[in-house]
Amino acid sequence: MTGGEIAGLLAAGVFAVLVLLLAVPILKLGRVFDELRLTIRSLNNETVPLIDEVTRTVSTTNSQLEKVDGITTNVSDASANVSALSSLVASTVGQPLIKVAAFSHGVRRAFTGDAAAPGSHRAERFGPAEGPGRAAGTAGPGGDRP
Fold it and tell me: What is the structure's pLDDT at 68?
């Protein structure tokens, strides 16, 4: 054997060892890809039913919200009707009741002869005869009439 042949055999041996050393990580990487493929497949199999369930839940929620919207509209209409009815009752019954109460109070005071409450002051017909702005002895409006 010549020196070139020995160098060729030595290079072939080194190349074979290099291929063996590189084959180990490549085989491990192949196993990682297999596991990754299985994980993605199982994730896909579990995700599809979950998405279907979420879709059903959202559609059910939308139908319930439509019902609640209808109920809210009805309650709003009923509230407006009650408000209008309350205003109508207040205007048709309230004002006459106030007038009847005032009339009955006046009649009761007339029959019982109640005078003005102590401490209350009634205005003079033409204002005070004497007071601020009037000199003593001067007549007020209409005071010079007989």
Answer: 93
